[in-house]
Amino acid sequence: MAEPTRKSDQAFRTIGELANELGVPQHILRYWETRFPQLKPLQRAGNRRYYRTADVALAHRIHRLLNADGYTIRGVQQLLAGGAADDAPTPSPATPTASAAAAGPAFPAQELRALRETLRAALDG
Protein backbone atom coordinates (compact mmCIF):
# COMPACT_ATOMS: atom_id res chain seq x y z
CA MET A 1 0.00 0.00 0.00
CA ALA A 2 1.43 3.38 -0.99
CA GLU A 3 2.19 5.92 1.71
CA PRO A 4 0.34 9.25 1.32
CA THR A 5 2.42 12.03 -0.16
CA ARG A 6 3.57 14.55 2.44
CA LYS A 7 3.18 18.22 1.58
CA SER A 8 6.18 20.50 1.49
CA ASP A 9 6.63 22.73 4.54
CA GLN A 10 6.23 25.68 2.16
CA ALA A 11 2.91 24.45 0.73
CA PHE A 12 -0.39 26.07 1.68
CA ARG A 13 -2.54 24.18 4.18
CA THR A 14 -6.31 23.92 4.16
CA ILE A 15 -8.18 24.48 7.41
CA GLY A 16 -8.75 20.73 7.69
CA GLU A 17 -5.05 19.93 7.27
CA LEU A 18 -3.99 22.55 9.82
CA ALA A 19 -6.69 21.46 12.28
CA ASN A 20 -5.46 17.84 12.01
CA GLU A 21 -1.85 18.96 12.41
CA LEU A 22 -2.70 20.85 15.62
CA GLY A 23 -5.22 18.33 16.90
CA VAL A 24 -8.02 20.90 17.23
CA PRO A 25 -11.43 21.18 15.56
CA GLN A 26 -11.73 23.50 12.55
CA HIS A 27 -14.04 25.87 14.39
CA ILE A 28 -11.21 26.64 16.83
CA LEU A 29 -9.07 27.94 13.96
CA ARG A 30 -11.96 30.07 12.70
CA TYR A 31 -12.41 31.42 16.25
CA TRP A 32 -8.70 32.25 16.49
CA GLU A 33 -9.02 34.24 13.27
CA THR A 34 -11.58 36.46 15.04
CA ARG A 35 -9.36 36.92 18.11
CA PHE A 36 -5.92 37.25 16.53
CA PRO A 37 -5.84 39.70 13.61
CA GLN A 38 -2.34 38.50 12.74
CA LEU A 39 -3.81 35.14 11.66
CA LYS A 40 -5.16 35.86 8.17
CA PRO A 41 -5.34 32.92 5.80
CA LEU A 42 -6.07 33.50 2.13
CA GLN A 43 -9.73 32.99 1.35
CA ARG A 44 -10.75 31.76 -2.06
CA ALA A 45 -14.12 31.12 -3.64
CA GLY A 46 -16.65 29.76 -1.18
CA ASN A 47 -14.55 31.12 1.72
CA ARG A 48 -12.12 28.20 1.43
CA ARG A 49 -9.17 29.02 3.66
CA TYR A 50 -5.53 28.49 2.70
CA TYR A 51 -2.94 28.98 5.42
CA ARG A 52 0.48 30.23 4.35
CA THR A 53 3.69 29.08 6.04
CA ALA A 54 3.67 32.14 8.34
CA ASP A 55 0.02 31.47 9.26
CA VAL A 56 0.83 27.83 10.06
CA ALA A 57 3.74 28.90 12.28
CA LEU A 58 1.55 31.48 14.05
CA ALA A 59 -1.23 28.92 14.60
CA HIS A 60 1.32 26.52 16.13
CA ARG A 61 2.58 29.31 18.39
CA ILE A 62 -0.94 30.29 19.49
CA HIS A 63 -1.74 26.64 20.16
CA ARG A 64 1.42 26.19 22.25
CA LEU A 65 0.82 29.38 24.25
CA LEU A 66 -2.80 28.47 25.00
CA ASN A 67 -2.48 24.74 25.60
CA ALA A 68 1.07 24.07 26.76
CA ASP A 69 2.17 27.34 28.34
CA GLY A 70 -1.17 28.11 30.01
CA TYR A 71 -1.84 31.58 28.63
CA THR A 72 -5.35 32.97 28.26
CA ILE A 73 -6.71 34.27 24.94
CA ARG A 74 -6.20 37.80 26.25
CA GLY A 75 -2.64 37.02 27.34
CA VAL A 76 -1.75 35.67 23.90
CA GLN A 77 -3.40 38.68 22.25
CA GLN A 78 -1.23 41.00 24.31
CA LEU A 79 1.92 38.99 23.60
CA LEU A 80 1.26 39.10 19.87
CA ALA A 81 0.24 42.77 19.91
CA GLY A 82 3.40 43.59 21.86
CA GLY A 83 5.41 42.67 18.79
CA ALA A 84 7.03 39.56 20.24
CA ALA A 85 9.01 38.02 17.40
CA ASP A 86 8.14 34.48 16.33
CA ASP A 87 11.69 33.31 16.94
CA ALA A 88 12.01 35.10 20.29
CA PRO A 89 11.77 32.88 23.34
CA THR A 90 8.29 32.82 24.79
CA PRO A 91 8.26 34.20 28.33
CA SER A 92 7.27 31.73 30.98
CA PRO A 93 3.85 32.33 32.52
CA ALA A 94 5.57 32.24 35.92
CA THR A 95 7.65 35.27 34.90
CA PRO A 96 5.35 37.26 32.61
CA THR A 97 6.39 40.35 30.74
CA ALA A 98 4.69 43.64 31.54
CA SER A 99 2.20 43.18 28.71
CA ALA A 100 1.41 39.61 29.73
CA ALA A 101 1.15 40.60 33.39
CA ALA A 102 -1.73 42.91 32.55
CA ALA A 103 -3.68 39.85 31.34
CA GLY A 104 -3.40 38.28 34.77
CA PRO A 105 -1.59 35.13 35.84
CA ALA A 106 -1.68 32.20 33.48
CA PHE A 107 -0.14 29.27 35.35
CA PRO A 108 -0.42 25.69 34.19
CA ALA A 109 -2.68 23.59 36.40
CA GLN A 110 0.23 21.51 37.71
CA GLU A 111 1.99 24.60 39.10
CA LEU A 112 -1.26 25.80 40.69
CA ARG A 113 -1.77 22.47 42.43
CA ALA A 114 1.79 22.53 43.80
CA LEU A 115 1.29 26.09 45.02
CA ARG A 116 -2.00 25.12 46.70
CA GLU A 117 -0.27 22.24 48.51
CA THR A 118 2.53 24.55 49.64
CA LEU A 119 0.01 27.05 51.01
CA ARG A 120 -2.01 24.31 52.70
CA ALA A 121 1.15 22.98 54.40
CA ALA A 122 2.11 26.49 55.54
CA LEU A 123 -1.34 27.12 57.02
CA ASP A 124 -1.47 23.73 58.75
CA GLY A 125 2.05 23.96 60.18
TrEMBL record:
SUPFAM superfamilies: Putative DNA-binding domain (SSF46955). Keywords: DNA-binding. SMART domains: HTH_MERR. The keyword Protein transport does not apply. It holds the Pfam family MerR_1. Gene3D superfamilies: 1.10.1660.10. Residues 83-104 are annotated as: Disordered. Residues 14-82 form the HTH merR-type domain. InterPro entries: DNA-bd_dom_put_sf, MerR-type_HTH_dom, MerR_fam. GO terms for molecular function: DNA binding; DNA-binding transcription factor activity. PANTHER family: BLL5018 PROTEIN, REDOX-CYCLING DRUG-SENSING TRANSCRIPTIONAL ACTIVATOR SOXR. This is DNA-binding transcriptional regulator, MerR family. It comes from Allosphingosinicella indica.
